[in-house]
């Protein structure tokens, strides 16, 4: 089986209830949110996997029909409803890689320089299985780098476990403090995520400030 160095997993399977519409297709400047994430991910990884909500699969397939390096998947049936970890397991099972960027589909400020910083961080911390940022005392696990955890994730999920923080704590995790990741990018709201229409409106008003 081929093993890639880097693959990107974009987690887009949420319900988007507070937004009232799929966050995957929210506008971001002159493109869609998902197009932005795919664009930057393909500069630093060979393949991109989008873990999609079932209602978005057809539209995503049409959007990326000409890009053979993108796979549109849904969570493994046996782990549907298990949250982000089910998406990680599904993606890792589909394409074998040493490392995976794991990105939420609602972070418009994630950029290439940050992803390249994550790559360098894996070289500086070769014993780590997960590398995730800390901002204002809070972990952001859906903006991190994950070593292939397919076997461990299967065992964890198969026991009925769903909590992401418990899984992160069960493996060797390096938590990047702001003074470190802040050197990779000048974006001071890197981990801003859009959950409501007002979040989107506020982001659009301040995008060029």
CATH names the topology as: Spore Coat Polysaccharide Biosynthesis Protein SpsA, Chain A
The CATH class turns out to be Alpha Beta
Q: What's the mean pLDDT score?
A: 90
Q: Output the CATH homologous superfamily.
A: Spore Coat Polysaccharide Biosynthesis Protein SpsA, Chain A
Shape: globular
Using the CA coordinates, give the radius of gyration. 16 Å
Tell how many strands the DSSP assignment holds.
10
The DSSP helix count reads 8
Helix content class: 25-40%
Tell me the span between the first and last alpha carbons: 47 Å
What is the chain-wise order of helices and strands?
Answer: EEEHEHEHEHEEEHHEHH
InterPro entries: MobA-like_NTP_Trfase, Molybde_CF_guanTrfase, Nucleotide-diphossugar_trans
Protein name: Probable molybdenum cofactor guanylyltransferase
Keywords: Cytoplasm, GTP-binding, Magnesium, Metal-binding, Molybdenum cofactor biosynthesis, Nucleotide-binding, Nucleotidyltransferase, Transferase
Subcellular location: Cytoplasm
Give an account of the 3D structure.
The protein is of the alpha/beta class and 209 residues long. It has a single domain (4-206), classed as Spore Coat Polysaccharide Biosynthesis Protein SpsA, Chain A (Alpha-Beta Complex). It contains eight helices and ten strands. The strands form two sheets. Strands 1, 4, 5, 6, 7, 8, 9 and 10 form an eight-stranded mixed sheet that branches. A two-stranded antiparallel sheet has the order 2-3. α3 (84-94) packs across α5. The mean pLDDT is 90.
